[in-house]
Give the backbone structure.
Amino acid sequence: MRHTDEAPAVTEALGRLREKGERVTAARRAVLQVLDEARGHMCAEDIAERVDAAEPGVHRATIYRSLQSLSELGIVAHTHVPGSATIYHLKHSAASQHSHAHLQCTTCERFFDVPTDWLGPLGDRMREELGFELDSQHAALLGTCADCVTERSTN
């Protein structure tokens, strides 16, 4: 049964779960809704807090297991962030209809999304010269954003 306030991306993700023969649980539905409504990148702890507010009684361990299984099923993407918590987003949400890589400023810690095709030449060269397949969505690339570079140069 479709919830009347369910976003199209959540409906699509739940349909993909059913197609794969997976159960649609309250925890999975709540995790998907939180990720769809997210503005920015969220770690598991942030997701758990929002799920708890929306669905009190869903155990935190269940939320973490839901994130794990949804990632394994290809419905949720996760990105490892050096020195920080892994971040998650819904792969087919309106906010992320294109595949993207993540950049993180090491000074202010903000994230930036960039199209994965920007990294295409690097991936091609790695494949040709090393036989290495780059997964550009799986880890954040670190650097310094323009605002922090400007601030550093004016100080």
User: Anything to note?
Assistant: The helical segments are 8-19, 26-37, 44-54, 60-72, 120-130, 146-154. The two ends are 58 Å apart (CA to CA). The mean pLDDT is 86.
